[in-house]
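Minutes, methods subgroup
Present: GH (chair), OT, SY

1. OT presented the first of two proteins processed in the latest run. Sequence and structure tokens recorded below as shown on screen.
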Amino acid sequence: MKKKKVKLRDLGSKERQGEYGHESGHNHDGPEGVSKFKTYLPAIFSFVMLIIGIAVDYFDAFPFFKGWIRIAWYTLAYLPVGFPVIREGWNSIKHGDFFTEFFLMSIATLGAFAIGEYPEGVAVMLFYAVGELFQNAAVNRAKGNIKALLDARPDEALVLRNGNFVTVNPQTVEIGERIQVRVGEKIPLDGILLSERASLNTAAITGESKPDTINRDEKVYAGSINLEGVIDVETSKEFKDSSITRILDMVQNATARKSKTELFIRRFARIYTPIVVFLAIGLTFLPYFFLNDYVFRDWLYRALIFLVVSCPCALVISIPLGYFGGLGAASRNGILFKGASFLEAITKVNTVVMDKTGTVTKGVFKIKEIKTAQFEEAKFMKYLMAMEEQSTHPIAKAILEYKAEGTDIKATDVSEVAGKGLRGTVNEKTVLVGNKALMASNNIDVPSETDDIVDSIVMLAIDEKFAGYVTIADELKEDAHLAIQQIRDAGISKIIMLSGDKDSITQQVSKKLNFDWAKGGLLPEDKLGEVEELKKQSDTKVAFMGDGINDAPVLAISDVGIAMGGLGSDVAIETADVIIQTDQPSKMARAIKIGRSTRKIVWQNIGLAFGVKAFVLILGAGGVATMWEAVFADVGVALLAILNAVRLQRMKWNT
């Protein structure tokens, strides 16, 4: 919306529908204190003029304060707060939008002036203006965490070019370039740490404020603050693809995806407002045909009260503000919802489906057990490592992390046996490394104890004799047990694991973590089929949590798709509806709680607005309520709803 230089914050129809991408509306040319004073000056001026006018009326201290002098005084009090609203109402009418709140407030207050109720007319518009200022402050507060993210986005990078480090715009840095980050500076792009160690504050990315220690060759993320010593980083992504930029895009675009409640209230307001106008007209004139003592002024006054009370401000302000507060609270906790619609959808989830590797486990294989039959462990591992050096499999990487002392030995003539393992020569001995099928195909006897092993197993044979085996396992995440327990405590009735890993390992992990049921050995299309079957069940709302490219189809089809933002693939993150920046599955329970808190506050505001308005409408139509009660029913309720929505920004969700 085009920013207009007016004293009262200029509210267009889009803003009233909850699209908070607007400027704050006050003049930013001067210092902040002066700017705020200019914003509040019209309301202060009108308030002082109104109080003086009421006092003079009440005490009747000045006999000349009558007639045109009194009208001029209250008109002067009215204009600073009333003119911007009247102008906005007129602009809306010119664009074919007659029934706006600006129109309602303008007609009600000008009508009050027409029947001589000058103080009430000024008071209604003054309190409306104050409500607008409160709304502006609440929106700015809700946007504070997004501003913090904007501040976290680096605006320069120190990059090595032609033998020297030069300062450049991060958008000009290419993948693979070396950048240097000094103490207290933000890392400008995602990359790999080249220095031995780094201590980073990753709060802007993960929502966790505690320092994070990163070692050489590990990933670092743009927006993280370097806490100790100068570090060097090799960039792995362009600036536009970096984590902080992606987060900003998600959060800033989130408000565009409205919840069903928001959309309903918007549609309702557009139908409700014209009905209110015609009811007010009817309330003014219809009693003439049924009452003998009909007084036009009295019924017009009641109709004006009806208009003020009926203004849908509290609903169209507080509901989107509530969702906006929920989005902000979630992002402060390292959880990014891509829209208010998903914040609402997660409250309806009753079935959670989780991937295994990278979701409840770390996705990093470790040696669990070493059993030898011919040699001592160190010698056995040298033979095994010599062979695995020729492989790029993740299990090979886990084996190569073993630290063996002594002279390294090399494998030669290494060839792959499809689906079974490797064959080669080490120290002039024929060596086989692989699974049980490889041993069986070469007539090598394997101990029967291996039949009961669930974990991934790598066997070694030297010169056609079994030499031992190594078991490899993926570690559970530290909060995996806690995650399942908290998801159950959040009221989720069914928790399921679907994995591409072999079924025996999947069942073992499932048993450890107390899943309701699990299934392994699944291809991406198999996972998709399982979730589709779940969704066919009546009243089942499915949330799927995953991290890999293979999870993208399931993330897309789920009612709520949740991706791991750290380990997760870019495809999964782009497809998901919710991103957990810390890679902690326990954050899902917190996401559900934030969604429920947001929904609770939104419905509290709806109930408050409808309840109070209905009560005062009945009183107004019966001639009991005055314009002052109408002010409370409109602006007062709006202020209460705004303050209620702001509570979301102070809430803590301990999980």
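2. SY then presented the second protein from the same run.
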Amino acid sequence: MRWPSTRRLVPQRPLTGRPFALSRGTALDIGLAVGGTGLDVLVSAGSWSGGSGPAPAWVGTGFALLAGLPMGLVRRWPGPVAVYLSVLLVVCDQIGAFTVNTLQVLLPISVGVLARSRGWGWTAPVAVLASAATAVNLADPGIALTSNTWSYSVGLIAAPVLIGRYLRGQEGRRKEDPAPLLDLLLAGGGVALSVLTTWPYWHGGEPPVWAVALGVMLAGLALGVVRHLPGAVLLLESLALVVADQYVPRAGNSLQLLALVALGVFATRAAWPWVSAAYALTCSVAAIVVVDDPGDITLFRVVALMTMVTAPVAIGRYVGVRQAQARHAAELTAERDRAGRLAERERIAREVHDIVAHHVGAMVLRASAAQYAGAGGPAAEALADIRDTGHRVLEDLRGLLAVLRDPDEALGSDLTLANMLADPGDVLRDAVSRMSAAGLRVDLRLAPEVERAPLVVRASAARIVQEGLTNVLKHAGPGARAEVDVGIRPDALTVEVRNGPGTSRPPDVLPSHGQGIAGMRERARAFGGHVTAGPAEGGGWRLAASLPVPRESRSECRMTGRFA
């Protein structure tokens, strides 16, 4: 559809049912803040009053808010949030607050978000700061930083940086199938997270170290298929958590994040009853892992655990809604584009019809007038032929215009493309007869097996023959000899138009638009075929075309007919 060069842009109405808050990402920010706070409450509540530590509950709640609430700003200001969490990690380490365990999880997440949304000017210094803060937290008081400590500190921050930079590099790139790369990224991230957060505890359980390492890596690798089998991965992660809690308790707390990721992915596509069941399962497994003494179960800790598990469900449902809206918007855009193309096609068809119909109509009227004026002999026959051909051209134009305007209605009625096309064999014979009447001597060899080729392929071959014979008449002149060969090969319908040298006298100059060969090549290319044209051996010209057909047509037999 052609638009004027200056137009007023009208804002589009939002999609029906799309909440204003969700469109601005507020729900996601709230979910991140609540999830971070709930994670610290779940991890650190045992150190509050009534637990193993001396800190009162209000102090622990304050630290949980200090650590978790900034995650609500991490999407907009990842750099300042990462710097803040690094400083808070060092402060909590110096005063002995249990919130350091939560910060060791939230800090790599914020650095990964920073690496995805900002350049190296922000990412590099913040990553160095985060690694240093992690090393300070891992080093025991009075003990120098060891190479193992630095390796763990750098690896813990380097993994999310690499993931974030990879995701940033993929933005704006069109890939035919990005799914394998995304699955590989999830698997690598899962392994990195599970190994880096659990390897200090591999020696603390009953199983051998190799068995613990294998189980941890399998739990991380399972994220590679979480997009395809989220329910199965959630069950696997839940089983891994229960087994780890039984044999390697401290590793179970670290692996819990994998189960929360699987729950979030599951929530993006499952129905609410299944999401509720998965939520209950995750809460139960988290309670088994977190609660060591039944006496520690309080209403506050139960609410905190349920809140933490609610965060991935809320984020997953939010992402699922946004994905559905994106698909719906893409479908609407595609439909609008299609409607615009159809409207433009109809406009062009109407203009072509009007132009061609005007000139053909004028030609028919002049031929009829000349015929009625008393023309006789060959001139009268030529005028009658022009008039009949013009009438057929006008009928074909009207039929094609009807198909372009409404293909479904036209194809559902008697006006089908098959009815509009004459039999290709008749078209070939008619073309040979016309050229013979104009003075060409034409030999037509048409294989009977050609009838088994698709109608559209035979029709295109007939049009190529028509154009080829017209070119012979234009350039070789009356009296020249032309040979037309239409046959079948195992994989294609073949056309060959060959003519010898032209007559001694120059041919009459006939109208030519200069697009004959180009049009034949375009017609053949539409079927995956090709057209070649050039001088023939011994003089003259040779035109050859190959149009692919189904393999059922295999015969090379030909039927010979002569028209002179």
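Chair's summary of item 2: Residues 191 and 220 are 4 Å apart (CA to CA).
Next meeting: continue with the remaining queue.
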